[in-house]
Design brief:
It is a single chain. With about 350 residues, the protein is of the alpha+beta class. It is about 25% helix and about 35% strand. It folds into two domains: about 10-120, Rieske Iron-sulfur Protein, CATH 2.102.10.10; about 135-345, Naphthalene 1,2-dioxygenase Alpha Subunit, Chain A, domain 1 (Alpha-Beta Complex), CATH 3.90.380.10. The strands form three sheets. Strands 11-17-16-15-14-13-12 form a seven-stranded antiparallel β-sheet. The protein has a six-stranded antiparallel β-sheet with strand order 1-10-9-4-3-2. About 40% of the residues are buried. The protein binds FE2/S2 (inorganic) cluster and fe (ii) ion. FE2/S2 (inorganic) cluster binds near residues 50, 71 and 74. Fe (ii) ion binds next to helix 3.
């Protein structure tokens, strides 16, 4: 079960543009959808089902803003109504569910649930998109694991020491306790390390920002979970003794790890990952380098999560432990459960 009366990232605008006349079939929250561009060039989505004989419309082609079924040529309009079929009258044809779709920050967002409740005012806002003071880049992984395993992963960064030993891991993460709090429906987990050596990824970022990579630093990780499944992580290092997270920009390298986690099925999800940074935002070579480094780091997570999911499926009755390091994930899951229960009873999430 998924929270459905909410916005999820479905794909990037670039992904849809890159397909040309091909529509994009994508399952989100167990609903098979097909995305394409309507006559005005805006992204739209309908059920990926042809009312004629049930073929997936995503195998068809987009022609003048209509989706033409690849089996016998039925033409679907952007509101889910059949507009034409060769040699047939289509007036009585059943309509498809059409999904509310919005475009913001280079992403295509979809509202899978009750369409009457879809409201662009409920889209999340972020200061770092469409902002010349920030640079952003990212990518997409299709992960064969329950989306909540990704939330667990991102809300407990002690795994960095082991999974990402060569880039961002370091023993001080394990040795520094973290604090979890609830703030306005957000779960916030933070860890602050003082007077340490920066790990390789952050040494690279320090050099890029004109700082001595060997200097002692204060390092922070502040993970923020917002339902249904967005996680923003403030990460960075500052020269030791300047206030850490609050240090002035010239003595730190600072970024936000951006995670939009969209459930596909109970055991798979779409993971839109990225990094927004405030230092040297015009440096495109640095943006590319960070993207490559981050992509490698997240592929390490993906491998772990997929094998973890396979193990959990193999041993479905084995209880899993909940330790203090798991509190960020546990509290995030609790919020998801509460919203799900509320949506089941009232049809409206909090
Ligand atoms: S199944 Fe789509 S037109 Fe026949
Ligand atoms: Fe990780």
């Amino acid at each position: 079960m998924f929270i459905k009366n909410t916005w999820y990232v479905a794909c990037t605008e670039a992904e849809l543009d890159g397909l040309g006349a091909q529509p994009l079939g994508r399952t989100i929250c167990n609903e098979k959808m097909v995305f394409f561009k309507g006559p005005d060039g805006r992204a739209v989505a309908v059920e990926d089902f042809c009312p004629h004989r049930g073929a997936p419309l995503s195998l068809g082609k987009v022609c003048e803003g209509k989706l033409v079924c690849g089996y016998h040529g039925l033409e679907m309009g952007c509101e889910g109504k059949v507009v034409h079929m060769p040699g047939q009258r289509v007036r009585g044809f059943p309509a498809n569910k059409a999904y509310a779709v919005a475009q913001r920050y280079g992403f295509v967002w979809v509202w899978p649930g009750d369409q009457a409740q879809a409201d662009v005012a409920k889209l999340p806002t972020f200061e770092f998109f469409d902002n010349p003071d920030w640079a952003y880049s990212g990518g997409l992984y299709h992960v064969q694991a329950d989306y909540r395993l990704m939330i667990d992963n991102l809300m407990d960064l002690t795994h960095e020491t082991y999974v990402h030993a060569s880039s961002i891991g370091q023993p001080e993460i394990d040795e520094t306790p973290c604090k979890t709090t609830l703030e306005n429906g957000q779960v916030v987990l933070q860890r602050h390390m003082s007077g340490i050596q920066a790990p390789p990824f952050w040494q690279m970022a320090m050099s890029a920002n004109g700082l001595d990579p060997q200097a002692k630093v204060d390092r922070w990780q502040i993970c923020r979970f917002t339902p249904p499944s967005h996680i923003m992580i403030d990460v960075g290092v500052a020269l030791a003794g300047h206030g850490g997270f609050h240090a002035p920009p010239e003595v730190k390298a600072y970024s936000v790890v951006v995670d939009f986690i969209t459930p596909e099925t109970e055991t798979s999800h779409w993971y839109h990952w990225g990094m927004a940074r405030q230092f040297k935002p015009q440096d495109e070579a640095l943006t590319a380098r960070i993207r490559e480094g981050q992509g490698k780091i997240f592929s390490e997570d993906m491998q772990m999560l997929q094998l973890q999911q396979a193990n959990i499926l193999r041993w479905p009755d084995r209880p899993l432990l909940m330790l203090n390091i798991d509190s960020g994930g546990v509290q995030s899951r609790r919020i998801i459960e509460q919203l799900l229960a509320q949506e089941q009873t009232t049809g409206v999430p909090a």
